[in-house]
Amino acid sequence: MDGLGRTRRVLIALLVVTLGACVVAAPSDDPVPAESATSDAPAVRIGVGPEQESVLLGAVMAQLISDDGFTPEVVDLADADAVRQALEVGDVDVAPGYTGQTWLEELGRENPPGDPRTSFQGVSSADESNGIVWLRPGFDLEAGVGGPPADATLALWVTPSVAIEAPSIAELGAALAETPDAEVCLDAAFGERTDGWTALSQRYSIGPTVLVEATPTEAIAGVAAGQCLVGLSTLTDGRAWAAGLVPLADPLDVFPAFVVSVQVRDEALARRPGLDTALQPLADNLTSSMLGALNARVVAGEALDLVAMVGVTQLTAPPSSGSTPSPSAVGTPTEAATAGPGNETESEPAMAPGSG
Length: 356
Known about the structure:
By secondary structure, the protein is α/β, with parallel strands linked by helices. It contains 16 helices and ten strands. It has a five-stranded mixed β-sheet with strand order 7-6-8-5-9. Strands 3-10-4 form a three-stranded antiparallel β-sheet, sandwiched between helices.
């Protein structure tokens, strides 16, 4: 893809500059001096993109490390590519990461796996040579959206009544066959690509369907209003969770995994003992439903810092007392599904496995 090639050329250029600077300095075998977690130590720079979810994750990370005595500094960057480049060259120390995005964009690989474990292992292993450590998440895949890790993959959303008849995409074909005029609302590019809806419908034996072009926000609003039977967005879409919609399970792992975790420069870990421990609760305990509910609170207008505090409380709570708030607790369907533009950044859904 042209965009991918351009991103990689920019990244390579930045790395050449960095490596060139390293050649000038005399090599040293001395270990990197550690810094104590005090206010006198340099701030831990957290890189975030403009997307609502990236900003929220950055705020959660900032509060986690602040609670452990580190001084956070959130660095706002232009987009996900800029965040990654800043992490590569050392302009930031940590950043929230999505395995599927890194697999496709930063590593330039095809066919991102749908299995979260495979996705994480492939990305974390490949990034070792880049000096980037991915904090290993908890894996309770049998718990679905209520177990870690959080996965910001694509999802097909329906109302609870539809989900009773079709709890997963495997049953969606039968539900659509019963109502042949039902509309499936999804991004135009996903609907047109052979490795988008065509590949998904073939894997799940879904027959001819009425496809309606819609952005993720329009798709979720359409499902909530009863205009669309199914809407395509991400699994952590705050509007969908606030509207009380239900994501259909993807038992064949057709959608690529976008496991949410923390990326840290190994140099930052060496200089700041305990930084990984401070951030580990996000990797260990964040779930898709928890992140979706937190996003929903932001969509409903709650202050970002307060939502981040709720997230930290949930992430660090003992297992017996921790719980994820229900969608109904974070905003009404009308408030969330009809929220004005600007609360979430629209983006084209990630491509299905097989995209080049």
